[in-house]
């Protein structure tokens, strides 16, 4: 018996309970006693059937990810499952919570699976740059068919118990006491008598596989892989299940797993898995959080409406405030239309839409915010306007209400200093569209109370956001580094690179799109307005805006767009404009390589990240990676800018920054001290003591 695996009896049915909080990961200290228990029960004639269950909030949520990259301690998961399949008496997995990865693979080693009605089952290894390494790619298709298995494994998305039952993945779904139901199910099965066929020997799911249709679907999925190896390997492993004998396909799965687990892409994606969880931890564990029962949102425009939806989606009642009934109704109308689109797409039921809209109360009177525990302003990005709003909030908000600004750039310390309760003020920087984008930069101002900060970090999880706590500086983390990344864009154009060439260098790197496509999508007028407010110029972008070329919304920006289309078309007029402006500056065009483009955009971005870390704007380098992957589409296979700097080599980055600094004398190329320390120590944190 072990603390992590306990065996109990209910008559002739043995119950093996795994207890390895928080998610029952299949760590070595679980695998070893579990194997011993299974062998003992297999050979015990008084045991007619075996149920494998888990204590706590979930069935096994996977292999222990912290063990990857270290020597494997036997028995490994495959040995465990192989032993399970030597048991002739019926074995039943009792699944509640989330049976994921190795957890579902363990369950597939049982003859039967029963699930709680609220359970979810999936093989999310692809999100870690892996594939199911415990036989999941070979066993799952045998139950649900090759195409459904392909979709589940390449997407990594779990399915609910009802869908799993319909697909043949689980044999029964229960409400109430799952273990009791599982014991009765096992006893009934044993009473009927065997033999019981292990999943590995079942081919019903494979019989009608249309390999041509499978290959077509796999090909379509491969197009979305964007340079990631795992999705391709997943599809190959599932195809092997169809075309190879079981043991051969299993061996092929193992070979693919061994290659992937050692890959930089998987290391990067595993880094991000833990980085997201680290970022959400505030230093103070024992802080009593404030209670948020009602949320006030000021401003029902694009940002305010999206933020309101994010909170409504998290179950919060909303008071939405606008300056006039007309603006309020327009905002509510947009919110209703957005939910209607989700219903049409099938991602929201009609009932859920009604329920979310019922959470909204509209008003044009600040006094109606008096019962809100958290108030978020999303008004015009102007310091005077923000201060006026906070002044009104100071007068009406109840004591202890958290007062948040959604500003992207403005100094939150200055806003906090303008009212009587700076301890209640912080930033909640959402990214547009706020009801969709995962990233939330939580800005800790100098006087923000620790309990206020801990409260919103906790709240972020409830509304499905990936939270990163950042300090006050211009542009916080994301936009500050975005400015560094874009600081050379104009120079690259004037020196001879085209928008298409620069964007191509980005998409070849793994970005979903390049900076010029992104500018056209977001609207070039936004950056134009920001530059004018700060007395800055960008000769090409400003000229395009002066010509009314704002991007997709005007059909023309850096690219041309056909009516109602988003596909960027290179525009000779823009390229001629660039050449004209370059000639005016006496710049002769030259060939510019993709490497140069990356050096003059991503290296300054990493350098800025080093400065952000030095200034203590974030607690750890991986917070920066979380910001960029969840807010700006940095390729997950490269782990975020700071993780990628380790792959690229800090010394190489420094050498190239110094080269460009010598040629341009621009500050963005002056290597930060922490970057130099990282080159010596190999760690951002080791050097962060600077
Ligand atoms: N291994 C180790 N630690 C894990 C873990 C895992 N598989 N899953 C979660 N944790 C830790 C997590 O870091 C956090 O730690 C705590 O548990 C709570 O997690 C061979 C190769 C299950 C849906 O990918 O999706 O099996 O921060 O904050 O929001 O084929 O955890 O408290 O110190 O996320 O309630 C496949 C990963 C592994 C599932 C619960 N399985 N986990 O979410 O809690 S690879 C996965 C999750 C594999 C085999 C392959 C979620 C969750 P700390 P949490 P949650």
From TrEMBL:
Principal localization?
other
**Catalyzed reactions per annotation:** a (3S)-3-hydroxyacyl-CoA + NAD(+) = a 3-oxoacyl-CoA + NADH + H(+)
> Where in the cell?
Peroxisome
Q: Which UniProt keywords apply?
A: Fatty acid metabolism, Isomerase, Lipid degradation, Lipid metabolism, Lyase, Multifunctional enzyme, NAD, Oxidoreductase, Peroxisome
Q: In which pathway does it act?
A: Lipid metabolism; fatty acid beta-oxidation
Q: Which CDD domains match?
A: crotonase-like
- Domain called 3-hydroxyacyl-CoA dehydrogenase C-terminal: residue spans: 475-561, 597-683
Mind telling me which InterPro entries this protein's record contains? 3-OHacyl-CoA_DH_NAD-bd, 3HC_DH_C, 6-PGluconate_DH-like_C_sf, ClpP/crotonase-like_dom_sf, Enoyl-CoA_hyd/isom_CS, Enoyl-CoA_hydra/iso, NAD(P)-bd_dom_sf
What sequence ranges are listed for the domain 3-hydroxyacyl-CoA dehydrogenase NAD binding?
295-471
Extract the Pfam families matched here: 3HCDH, 3HCDH_N, ECH_1
The Swiss-Prot or TrEMBL record describes its family as follows:
Belongs to the enoyl-CoA hydratase/isomerase family.
Describe, as the record does, how this protein assembles with itself and its partners. Monomer.
Q: What is this protein called?
A: 3-hydroxyacyl-CoA dehydrogenase NAD-binding domain-containing protein
Native species: Mesorhizobium shangrilense
